[in-house]
From TrEMBL, chain A:
GO terms for molecular function: ATP binding; ATP hydrolysis activity; phosphate transmembrane transporter activity. This is Phosphate ABC transporter ATP-binding protein. Residues 32-286 form the ABC transporter domain. One of its GO terms (cellular component) is membrane. It holds the Pfam family ABC_tran.
From TrEMBL, chain B:
It comes from Halarchaeum nitratireducens. It is found in: Cell membrane. InterPro entries: MetI-like, MetI-like_sf, Phosphate_PstA. One of its GO terms (cellular component) is plasma membrane. This is Phosphate transport system permease protein PstA. Residues 279-479 form the ABC transmembrane type-1 domain. The chain crosses the membrane at residues 23-45, 57-78, 90-109, 121-140, 146-167, 179-202, 222-241, 283-304, 324-341, 348-367, 489-510. PANTHER family: PHOSPHATE TRANSPORT SYSTEM PERMEASE PROTEIN PSTA-RELATED. The lineage of its organism: Archaea, Methanobacteriati, Methanobacteriota, Stenosarchaea group, Halobacteria.
Length: 291, 516
């Protein structure tokens, strides 16, 4: 254990990442399979050859100190990094048997199936109902416009049903069912965030990516989001980035620890990561010695 | 122990002492003199009018002297410790420089104009005076530095007016200067400058100088400025209404409704000549310009903000649009005359006027739309993209609706400018400024079996516009009286306000839609 002796208090170390730290055996299907993923912002490498298999219908937590690349990694999973000009992604992410970085991938379909919830609640300045039905409307799944009605297609019942289902799915229905036409910006922060989750559910995703969804919320709203995430994992694959290690320990099935430099250091069962981490650096991070 | 606690309390709780009430006198005089000064400038009262048997000029000068005496007393009370104040050790550089500048102007004018000295004398003299005043103000404690210079100014001004050195009949025609300044204006100017100084010094002193005094002094001064600004705006409108209302209401009656000046044309058949053709012309000009410019400008703003790489290209376009916006309007007029006119009918047409005003509107709407689009939070774009919605759909259903209020602000500002422009349409729009016939744009659309299938004689015919008519009245008095011009000005003001009202109402509607 020579690496323990070279360990410094800041977590800077010569420690080599061992392959067995990243091996994670799980039952069930793989939802996303990441292979040799590198991300560069200009000349800076933000992620260093990440390999990771994410099991479906479970909660995967990504933790690590600021700037470790966990959010970058999350944004790679539905190609949101395409929206940043300077970002360059190498490697493969396999979803439903296809590499999502192939040239012929349909981004619309990809993002319909892999939804995303952001750090700060960002509902549109529209009514609650319009926020939910926004995605399906744009994809043509719901049409209540005048032309559609003249042509004999009226999806208003479908819309009502969808709004209720998604709001119930996001545990928001009871609080807002009598004011669906109010502007979403009038909701509290926690309600807005659950509305954003409901909005993401509305396009029928398989995977939900959440980028620190509770970091801007108070403790009560946070615990609601946490309960919700655990419930969602019965139907959806949830990948959640969090700063809060207790949160990761509470809600996730497996945890991936990223450390400074964009390395994935350890990945495994959440209980094992938090009770018996194999990497010294991960142990230092989890016990609060740095990060 | 309890005693020292009581002392500390005294520092926290503001005391009122005699100096507070005393210092209110110059501040109040300042406020009154400010109003009286404006009233004199706008000739609502004359300096020779009397109030309680005393001329306003005399009243003002007595006020000046009273303020001088009180400020002087406050300064001396404060510095001798008769009243409790917290002045700083120095008055501060900025105040010192301001008083220096006043001294420079005062001494310079006196030396050069009254004593008739040449530049070799008056310039060094006033420079020395300025440096002296600034130095003294800088050197003495704040309570003296604030009160005494203002008191000195008030004393001089009060004496000069009271002794009729500069009285109501005084006239000053500077050498080599075609304009001349008359007594009433000088007295009003003294009142206004003095009032600003008095308000500042009085409020400053009433809080016992120091940081609290400066705070209130600055607040009072800035408030006075704000009131002055509003007053100028209000007085401008009142002035136009006063002069124009008679003409607009000439021959008007409620039932049956008649408003001949607004609803008639200009010709022998009318008992009261009117400006209806010009009103309609202005409205069509604005509508045409908006229809032409807004889609283009918003489209360009969307491209530049949402699609184009932010870099040299967008910066060049930005600089170019800013330049276009500041291009003098007569240049647009010349361009329209030389470029558009030969290509459209080779004659003056309404369409050419609309196009050139549209060109003028383009840059402003582009600049403001771009700003509005940039202010739409990126979170909306991210959220929409994460739902798999394409960029164009995102722009159309999230970004543009959120930007509409900002775009409307640009259109409102732009309309305000183009509706009143004379220069661009000077050469391309008008055949007869006082027209009997009204361009009927909507009624002139004709469909034809051959190309171009739709024709519109009104768009391709001459028109007239309110600002042009006003210009014609002023420059040549072409066929119309001065009252006619004032009436036109009032109606033009109303037309612009009407467009504002439309724009602001729409903006309120869209803002509400985004918020609730």
């Amino acid at each position: 254990m020579s690496q323990i002796e070279t360990q410094t208090t800041t977590g800077e170390t010569e420690e080599q990442i061992r392959d067995e730290w990243l091996e994670y055996e799980f039952d069930g299907e793989t939802a996303l399979s990441v292979e040799d993923l590198d991300v560069f912002y200009g000349n800076d490498q933000a992620l260093q050859s990440i390999d990771m298999d994410i099991p479906e219908k479970s909660v995967t937590a990504l933790i690590g100190p600021s700037g470790c690349g966990k959010s970058t990694f999350l944004r790679c999973l539905n190609r949101m990094n395409d929206r940043i000009d300077a970002a360059r992604v190498e490697g493969t992410v396999e979803f439903a048997g296809e590499n999502i970085y192939d040239d012929d991938v349909n981004l619309v379909e990809l993002r319909k199936r892999i939804g995303m919830v952001f750090q700060s609640p960002n509902p549109f300045p529209k009514s609650i109902r319009e926020n939910i039905s926004y995605g399906p409307r744009k994809h043509g799944d719901i049409d209540t416009g005048l032309v559609a009605r003249l042509l004999g297609r009226d999806d208003r019942d479908e819309e009502e049903e969808l709004v209720e289902r998604c709001l119930r799915g996001a545990a928001l229905w009871d609080e807002v069912h009598d004011r669906l036409d109010d502007n979403a910006l009038g909701l509290s922060g926690g309600q807005q965030q659950r509305l954003c989750i409901a909005r993401a559910l509305a396009v029928g995703p398989d995977v939900l990516l959440m980028d620190e969804p509770a970091s801007a919320l108070d403790p009560i709203a946070t615990s609601k989001i946490e309960d919700l995430v655990e419930d969602l994992a019965e139907e959806y694959t949830v990948v959640i980035v969090t700063h809060n290690m207790q949160q990761a320990a509470r809600i996730s099935d497996q945890t991936a620890v990223f450390l400074t430099g964009g390395e994935l250091v350890e990945y495994g069962d959440t209980d094992q990561i938090f009770e018996n981490p194999q990497s010294q650096r991960v142990e230092d991070y989890i016990t609060g010695k740095f990060g | 122990m309890s005693e020292s606690y009581g002392d500390e309390r005294a520092n926290i709780v503001a005391e009122t002492s005699a100096v507070d009430q005393l210092a209110v006198i110059p501040a109040t005089f300042g406020a009154i003199a400010f109003v009286v000064g404006w009233a004199i400038v706008f000739r609502w009262i004359s300096v020779t009018d009397t109030l309680a048997g005393i001329e306003y000029a005399t009243l003002l000068s007595i006020g000046h002297l009273l303020a001088a005496a009180v400020l002087c007393a406050v300064g001396i009370f404060s510095t001798t410790g008769i009243v409790d104040t917290e002045p700083d050790d120095s008055t501060g550089l900025f105040t010192a420089l301001a008083f220096g500048a006043i001294a420079f102007i005062g001494v310079g004018l006196t030396a050069s104009q009254t004593l008739g000295t040449g530049a070799t004398v008056w310039f060094p003299t006033s420079l020395v005076a300025a440096v002296l005043v600034a130095g003294v103000v800088l050197g003495v404690p704040e309570d003296l530095g604030v009160t005494l210079p203002v008191a000195a100014f008030e004393l001089v001004v009060g004496l000069v007016v009271l002794t009729d050195v500069i009285g109501p009949s005084w006239v000053w025609s500077p050498n080599g200067f075609s304009a001349s300044f008359v007594g009433p204006i000088a007295i009003a100017a003294f009142a206004m400058v003095g009032s600003l100084l008095c308000v500042w010094a009085g409020t400053n002193a009433s809080k016992g100088f120091g940081s609290r005094g400066r705070e209130l002094g600055a607040y009072a001064l800035i408030s006075t400025y704000a009131v002055a600004l509003l007053a100028i705006l209000a007085l401008l409108i009142i002035f136009v209404v006063q002069n124009g209302l008679n003409q607009v209401l000439k021959g008007a009656q409620l039932w049956p409704f008649k408003l001949p000046f607004v609803l008639n044309g200009y010709g022998l058949q009318y008992d009261v000549n009117g400006i209806f053709p010009a009103i309609v012309g202005t409205v069509w000009l604005v509508v045409g310009a908006v229809v032409f410019a807004v889609p283009l400008a918003v489209g360009a703003a969307v491209y530049l903000t949402e699609y184009a790489d932010q870099g040299r290209f967008t910066r060049i376009v930005e600089t170019a649009t800013n330049g276009l916006w500041s291009t003098p309007s007569i240049v647009y007029g010349l361009f329209a005359f030389a470029f558009l006119l030969p290509r459209i009918q080779n004659d003056v047409t309404l369409l050419t006027g609309q196009l050139v005003l549209g060109f003028m509107l383009l840059p402003l709407v582009l600049i403001t739309s771009r700003e509005a689009l940039q202010n739409v939070p990126d979170e909306y774009r991210d959220a929409s993209a994460a739902l798999g919605v394409t960029q164009w759909q995102t722009i159309r259903s999230v970004v543009l609706p959120a930007a509409i209020p900002g775009v409307l602000t640009g259109i409102i500002l732009g309309i305000g400018r183009i509706a009143g422009e004379t220069a661009p349409i000077l050469l391309v729009l008008v055949r007869e400024p006082f027209s009997a016939s009204t361009p009927s744009v909507l009624g002139s659309f004709h469909f034809t079996a051959t190309a171009p299938f739709i024709t519109n004689d009104a768009l391709l015919g001459p028109a007239t516009a309110l600002p042009y008519q006003l210009f014609a009245v002023i420059t040549a008095g072409v066929g119309a009286s001065q009252e006619f011009g004032w009436g036109t000005a009032l109606v033009l003001l109303c037309v612009v306000m009407f467009f504002y009202a439309i724009g602001i109402t729409t903006r309120i509607y869209f803002r509400k839609k985004l918020r609730q």
